[in-house]
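INFO  loader      accepted 1 record
INFO  loader      residues=80
INFO  predictor   begin
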Amino acid sequence: MGESLARIEVPDVVGMTGREAHALCRDLGLFLGYYNMDQQLPLSMVIAYQEPPSGTMAAPAAAVRIWTTLDPLPDDRRPR
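INFO  predictor   done
INFO  writer      dumping tokens
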């Protein structure tokens, strides 16, 4: 078995609620990581941005970091 068989395709969670994204990532074997770990993810908020992007191949239990509609976006995603 090669290492490529153990990779998981990161789903597109932008536009989902935290609850939907958490369930999807859990079912795929990925961890949903809310960018601000000082606050608990409000599961009803809509996800505005994710890292890594959908379609990326990730190792099992890798984190998919998310930002919600009320969170400041990462510097490279802020409007200029």
